[in-house]
Amino acid sequence: MGKNEHVVGSFQLMKSINKSLILNIIREEGEISRAEIAKMTKLTPPTVTNLVGELLTEGIVLEGQTGPSSGGRRPIMLSVNQSRYYVLGVDVGIDSVRYVLIDLSANIVVKKEKALPPQVDGDALVEILSENIKLLLEEENMVREQILGIGVGMPGIVNYQTGFCEDVELLDIQNLPLKERLEAALNISVIVENDVRATALGEKWFGNGKDVSDVICINIGHVVDAGIILNNEMFRGENGIAGQIGHTLIDMNGHQCSCGRIGCLQSIASHGGIKYAVKEQLDAGRETSIRDAIAGDENNINGKLVYEAAKQGDQLAIEVINKVGMYLGIAIANLIDVINPQRIILSGGLSRFDSILKDIHQVLDERALSEESRNTQIVLAHLQDNATVVGAATLVLNEFFLGDLVGN
Ligand SMILES: [Zn+2]
To answer: What CATH number corresponds to the domain at position 282?
Structure first.
């Protein structure tokens, strides 16, 4: 590449960054005039007018009501045209996939959940996702050009840059170039990210993380992991594996985890952990109402059933659920001491069990290092059941408003 080409390239990139900067200010402010944008960005008024002109031509920004006058002519207010583009979010779970179509303000147009057949492999997953996405777009009368992109949340370790899924936790999928395969099948831009990081991003944009810059979202369900946002940016670590708290050692004398090692947090504080603990006691002949509730089939043991039994006063169920809350409390206390976030957001099925939250708080009360760490806010995901799938769609909004796609 010659020297001049490099200069031209940098200039275009600069211009594109300013355009996305302006677009994001319009989004954040809701309504704003050109003069106010110039003041906020320190760009010259002609530059703002030019770039806003491009955004108007592209239909991403609308001119609306005139605003209050500050002496002279009343300014025209600008806002984001939220239905100019739509974004698809996909949340791949253990036994089902959720799909959501949202507009640029995260209003949900349509939401679907479809069962995933057992023992699905990488090829089958790509086929299922692309067929279902095509069908959903067809049903909603959407053409490809209206779709800004697709965000996919995947359990396990994902390379965010390449969309390569190294190891999909609890599904038998390894080394799947999911982004590449879906883009080839659908001809739409795809971003793939670990699911709890997607949840964290969704909560940061639209949920309980909106007003803080350092937030950790912890998923507690089939898998236990964390999405860490520091200084308003996703923290992924050197090899992209940051946040795997489910596989931190919590009990040296524990049992084997799904990762093959002994004593991970996830081997205790997850649906699988609850099932393991109950099964062990049933096999040992322990008296419990769960024995009747599962009608002789240990496959019927699940977190919800055990939680309900605990609420009815079943001693075994109470012990198992208590242990889950206690170990989560220890892990969270450790995390607070290492990272000291402003807020922790809990998501996933087990986070909705009241007594688990109570036990987490009790451990923090008893063991936190200081008054400040004891007082770290711990809240539930605001987006609840939609947290991960809307978060997955937010991956695309994040790129669109804050980065790469604008101006390409
Ligand atoms: Zn493990």
So the answer is: 3.30.420.40
- Model-level pTM? 0.90
How would you write the pLDDT of the chain (408 residues) with one tens digit per residue? 333 333 333 444 455 788 888 999 999 999 999 999 999 999 999 999 999 999 999 999 999 877 776 677 788 999 999 999 999 999 999 899 999 999 999 999 999 999 999 889 999 999 999 999 999 999 999 999 899 999 999 998 899 999 999 988 888 899 999 999 999 999 999 999 999 999 999 999 999 999 999 999 999 999 999 999 999 999 999 988 899 999 999 999 999 999 999 999 999 999 999 999 999 999 999 999 999 999 989 999 999 999 999 999 999 999 999 999 999 999 999 999 999 999 999 999 999 999 999 999 999 999 888 888 888 999 999 988 899 999 999 999 998 888 744 333
Q: In total, how many domains does the chain have?
A: 3
Q: Which residues surround ligand 1, an ion (CB under 5 A)?
A: 247, 257, 259, 264
- Ligand 1: distance of its center to the CA of 246 in Å? 6
Q: Which domain holds residue 75?
A: 3-80
57 and 123 together in one domain: no
In three-state secondary structure terms, 84 is coil
Q: Cα(281) to centroid of ligand 1, in Å? A: 22
Residues 258 and 165 occupy one common structural domain: no
Both 185 and 216 in one domain: the answer is no
360 and 375 assigned to the same domain? yes
Report yes or no: 144 and 134 within 8 Å, Cβ to Cβ: no
Packing angle, helices 271-283 and 315-339, rounded to 10 = 140
Locate 109 and state its tokens.
Answer: 């147009």
In our burial notation (b when 16+ CB lie closer than 10 A, e otherwise), range 89-115 reads bbbbbeeebbbbbbbbebeeeebeeee
CATH of the domain at 48: 1.10.10.10
Looking at 80, 106, 134, which one is the last position of a domain?
A: 80
